[in-house]
Write a structure and sequence with these properties.
Blueprint: H1 4-23, E1 26-31, H2 37-49, E2 52-56, H3 59-68, E3 82-86, H4 91-102, E4 107-113, E5 116-119, H5 120-127, H6 132-163
Antiparallel strand pairs: 1-3, 1-4, 2-3, 4-5
Helix pairs in contact: 1-3, 4-5
Length: about 160
Amino acid sequence: MASAKALEAKQKIIDEIKGHVEASNSIVLFDYRGITDEEAKALRRALKDAGAGYKIYKNTLMSRAFDDLKMDMKEALTGPSAFAYSEDQIAPIKVLSEFAKDHPALILKVGLVDGEKADASKLKEYATIPSRDGLLTMLAGGMIGLVRDLSICLDLYAQQKEEK
């Protein structure tokens, strides 16, 4: 039987995992086997630049945290698993997908986006969505086009009224 001190330390880690899950809009579990230390540092840096975090926990502790949160993630917790999390729904998925293109050893297992479970194929779909800034830029471009078209129409209407 583990000592009270060891159990307390494990419970702190479980609470930390639960805190990340509850505070994040997206989490991704991925297999990091075959990634070198330098590549892991580059991945951590890329995730941090995107406003996401990444940590490696023992699968048993992650399993307990997910069980406490009533989430079924057991099938993804086989083999080494790392845990990426972010308040942005798409950021960690995009970063991990881009990284996986250059590093085939990294395999996305499963994710949670806004509380909805997403398997590997769904994560690939999410990775194709433009970033929030990209979507806002597209929206602004569309709105500018509407305003421009409206101004042209109003100008033509004013010219037509002047001719009469």
